[in-house]
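S.,

Sequence below, as promised.
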Amino acid sequence: MSDVRLVLFDLDDTLFDHSHATERALARLRRAEPALAAWTSEELQTRHGAVLETLHQEVLAGALSIDAAREERFRRLLTAASSSELAARRAAVVAALYRDSYAREWRAVPGAVALLEALKRAGVGVTVITNNLTAEQRRKIDGVGLAPLVDHLITSEAVGVKKPAAAIFRAALDASGARAGEAVVLGDAWPIDIAGAQAAGIRAVWFNRTGLPSPDASVPELRSLEPIEYAVGLLLTGV
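The prediction came back faster than expected:
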């Protein structure tokens, strides 16, 4: 019988399919905005991801709102894609189009709903632990139908520290009433989710959808949340 009473899930690209929504939204932008069409889809995704990560840190630090960071993101991309000042002036319009397109494409990662349902049937608690703003992550959880299956949402905004700091993992354990030895973490970002869990003394499973090489072969990994029975077994027993 498993000792696991709690699974701590990352949200973006673990339960919420951020990559899917982003890819679809950027494809729409390339069709609508000539400056961005100068890049291939792959190059736009790479450049967008790098700028997004940089500005996201400013959002987490309270220096920018999500809306302001989104507009600045597309101002930088448009400036890099075109020497025309007119293109950069369209940042607000392009940012609004992106947000609308991104929200239309929201979905749970395939298998996420069924996995959480299976854990709930097994009497295992489900807590989301995420580096983002509480309202934004709550909207995502609600928007893809995960809300009835999530017991607690722990955000870096609410706790005041972000993963991989051990303090945010301890806050999640405290909120859920579980000890480190009774929990397991599932996340896609190794330096944040897996290294953070290990530093907090919590067993981790790496969600490696893209098949990246593992930094530590002793850490079990999932390439997909399906089949559900296998994912549940790996989370609860490690095998």
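The chain has two domains: 6-17+107-237, 19-104.

Coffee later?
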